[in-house]
Structures are given as C-alpha cells and as structure tokens.
Amino acid sequence: MHTLFIQQGQGVVVDGDVQITTATLYNCSVIAGFDPGSGRCGAYHLSSMRINEAAVRSELREFLRVLAPTRVFLVHALDHGMVGAGSPREDREGLMAWARGATHIKPAAAYSASPVCLSAGGVFVMGERQEIAAFDYKAPTLSLERAIAGPYEWKGCQFTLIGVSREPR
After folding, report:
1. CB 1 within 8 A of CB 142
2. Where are the domains of the chain?
3. CATH for 3-163?
4. Interior CA angle at 64 toward 138 and 117, to 5°?
5. What phi and psi, each to the nearest 5 degrees, are found at residue 118?
6. Sheet holding 29-35, edge to edge
7. Is the sign of the CA dihedral 35, 115, 119, 130 positive or negative?
8. For the sheet containing 18-22, what is the strand order?
9. In the chain, what is the straight-line distance between the N-terminal and C-terminal CA atoms, in Å?
10. Buried b (16+ CB within 10 A) or exposed e, 60-74
C-alpha cells in the first residue's frame, strides 16, 4: 500500500489500492469518490471560497471525468472554535449542489480535520485518519505538492494528478 499526499487545488485519481491524504483542513473541503467496478478512487482538496472559479470548476470536471465515481463523499473542515475554522456554509452548500448536479449522485457528507481516503481490495473508506484502523502510517508516501498535472506511475501505483497546488506559502 502507498500513500499519496495532495495539497489545496490538487486532485488525484488512482487505479488500485492506495491511501490518499491531504493537509489539515481549516476551512477547505475535500470531494472524494469511488467506483467499485473499476477499483478507481480519488480525492480533490478544494480551497475555501473557490467553488465558483472557472479554473477550479474545470479541474473538478476533469477530476470527475477521469474518476467516473459511483459513490461520492464530501468532507468539510470542522469548526473547532478557531477564528476562520470550519468550511463556510456557502462552500458546503455550493459544493453539495455542484457535486449533485455534476454526478447525479447524492454525496455523503462528513466533517474532519485530517481526512484520508483508503482503497483496498475493492473497499473504500473515507474518514478521519486517526479513526481508520487500517490506515498504515508506515506506508511509503509521495507528496504531490510540487508535481504538475498528468499521469504518473510510482512504485507500481498508477495515478493521474489534476490541478495545481494552491497552498499558501
């Protein structure tokens, strides 16, 4: 099992078993999906207040085209009392409406600070890193923060990176 790490503005679609992690969510959201038929899974880290930007919408459409999910999950940042923490209501509602319209699937929604997607043996789990017993903290990890969009293969793991890192520096 391998771990792929994405940043804000990046999405990754993977064929096969993988763990996908991202930076801590303070006010962002993650859209994730899975297709049991193909075994393909993916996640896109959506920066806060960017759902209506043309470039982001284009990346999200490409993410869904490559993934072709039959199950969709939205994970929003927890409001844990810090100023500016938690995904804004406009983001939650906008992403839910967009995802339903783009996929014709009602997404499952959850809240997390440290989300992870785990796909193994045709089973997909999305949740808080600390709560997923099968999460392998020792798995080889590849950070995609500085990678450019396109298809890749790493240690037998085939994936497509979509978008660009919008992580503030």
Report:
1. no
2. 3-163
3. 3.30.1330
4. 20
5. -130, 120
6. 108-112, 71-77, 29-35, 40-46, 10-15, 157-163, 150-154
7. negative
8. 123-128, 115-120, 18-22, 3-6, 141-143
9. 30
10. bebbbebbebebbbb
- Please tell me whether residue 129 adopts helix, strand or coil conformation: helix
pLDDT digits (tens, 9 = 90+) for 14-38: 988 899 999 888 888 999 999 999 9
How far apart are the C-alpha atoms of 107 and 91, rounded to whole Å? 14
Tally of residues, the chain: 169
Angstrom distance (rounded) from CA 63 to CA 150: 11
| Cβ-based neighbour number of residue 89 at 10 Å | 9
**Share of the chain residues as helix, strand and coil, in percent rounded to the nearest 5:** 20, 40, 40
16/4 Cα distance (integer angstroms): 12
Which two three-digit tokens encode residue 4?
């792929």
Q: How far is CA 40 from CA 130, 157, 158, 163, in A?
A: 23, 12, 10, 18
Tens digit of pLDDT for each residue in 62-114?
999 999 999 999 998 887 655 567 888 888 888 899 999 999 999 998 888 88
Report whether 23 contacts 7 (CB < 8 A).
Answer: yes
